[in-house]
Amino acid sequence: MADWDIxxxxxxxxxxxxxTVTATAEALHMTPSAVSQQLTxxxxxxxxxxxxxxGRRVRLTDAAHLVLRHAEAVFAQLxxxxxxxxxxxxxxxGQVRVxxxxxxxxxxxxxxxxxxxxxxxxxAVAVREAExxxxxxxxxxxxxxxxxxxxxxxxxxxxxRFSRVSLLADPLDVALPTGHPLxxxxxxxxxxxxxxxxxxxxxxxxxxxTTAACESAGFVPEQAHAAADWGAILAMVAAGMGVALVPRxxxxxxxxxxxxxxxxxxxxxxxxxRRHVVAAARRGSEGAPGLARVLAALQQAAATQxxxxxxxxxxxxxxx
Length: 320
Fold this sequence. Notes:
Shape: rod-shaped
Radius of gyration: 32 Å
Helix content: 40-55%
Oligomer: single chain
Strand content: 15-25%
Structural class: alpha/beta
């Protein structure tokens, strides 16, 4: 296979454009002898004659024109590569892998991706659902570039492996059956529900968040039913089987729409619990342009989410 030397091919192209060795040398800031030596070397590498005498000048052979025809395709591809590389360096191209817990995907990640598609269409985001601890494991091993998690279940800010950014404090509202006597209670507090049967997961972050919130309000919740799916939880609430804490972000993202009607969401007062959502990257990588753009889009989505209205004390679900 012939040895295609890009530098020498550029000299040949310039000679073709300008017509003389002297003009080529001036344009490329070379001496005429250096131009001749480079082109002689290219001819040896390719195994063809590139130049022939034409009076006191030289002209390109048919073989040289054939070489240039293919070289132009190479130059065009190199230009595209330069442009794409520049885009990558400026955060306009490339791929950022995001690991996120379930409710963060529709509420934060999807709006961020939609915005990036509009503003930076060359930047791809690959999403992987992962719960809090798993997201950090994926981040540590290099399988994702950003991890969205809950602060209560993430490594401490002093962990030297990660750089953390707070995204939002997600309020927890209480889901009650629409016929519950406390639906219309003014100034409803979490402590008012101490004697209620509760519905929450049997293990994992949401179980811990529910029990911790209730304990902070002064009671240990009686778990009547265990479920992790929001549709299942709200269906049981609607059936009068218990009450549940629901992240506002989950409802805003539409995850409760599979539930039947008959659920009232109430904002808690005074002792309203919140879960804190954070984004983390491997320490030192947060300055990469593409990653920084994704993080900025997530922060914008979180700000929009935080400005969302609190739910009214009416039913939720498709029949409300």
